[in-house]
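Thread: quick sanity check before group meeting

JM: Hey all, I'm pulling together slides for Thursday and realized we never actually wrote out the predicted structure for the chain we discussed last week. Dropping the sequence here so it's in one place. If anyone has concerns about the input, flag it before I start.
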Amino acid sequence: MMEPPREKPGEAEGPRITPQLLKSRTGEFALESILLLKLRDLGLADLGCLGECLALEWLDLSGNALTQLGPLASLRQLAVLNVSNNRLTGLEPLASCESLQSLNAAGNLLAAPGQLQCLAGLPGLQHLRLQDPLARLSNPLCASPSYGAAVRELLPGLRVIDGERVSGRGSELYQLCRDLDRSLRPSSGPRPRAAEAQPWVEPGYWDSRPTRSSSILEEACRQFRDTLQDCLELDRQASDRLARAQQTLSPAGAAASFVF
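JM (edit): ok, ran it. Output follows.
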């Protein structure tokens, strides 16, 4: 009776990545030409030949059944990696991904901050996600209240953790929101008595005030009316003089009408 073939070390049971799968998903003939790759929700348990995609820069492996990332160690150009919602207990192969800038590992089985030590040597790593409340994804290590501080101490180069900016431009706003959130949470001890509200303007500030007439405006209106009267008088005098001038220049006894 023949024994069933034994599983090779590091090889998991289940669907695996093959050259045919990669070429059909990308349309590329050579694996070395693939730059972007989306392999999410395929139930993958083995990365297979993925390590041959040496030019890969963007990779999405979320929603699979991966337990290890061994083949990714050869991807030196990889900048963005999403391995959320898998079964990973370690990230050690990523220590060789020297170009990695963004990593989403939410929804795995990472149990302690020390398992992130392998990422400490990645100079460009700035974005790290270990939990995603909207997608209900997390890791066991996120249950500790001090996990965020531990991650920042272990990886001081990070700018964004779990979508929250922790350093660089905008981090002060996030800190302010955290402090405000803590201040609004109910406490078990007696609450301090709130100080009585005080008005911020003087009494009577909002009272309506009588409208003050402008003496300058009134004087201007009076002068305008006087000038208008003077103009009308001058126009009347000019009309009278024109009428008298026409009478004087008209020939005496000139007929006023013609008979046809």
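AS: nice. The beta strands are 36-38, 58-60, 80-82, 102-104, 127-129, 160-161, 164-165. The helical segments are 19-26, 147-154, 171-184, 215-249.
JM: adding both to the slides.
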